[in-house]
Amino acid sequence: MSSAVITKDTGIGMTKEVQMRIFECFYKADPSRNRSNGGSGLGLSIVKKIIEMHKGDIQVESLPKEGTEIKVILPINNPGA
Question: What is the DSSP code (8-state) at residue 24?
Answer without folding.
Answer: S
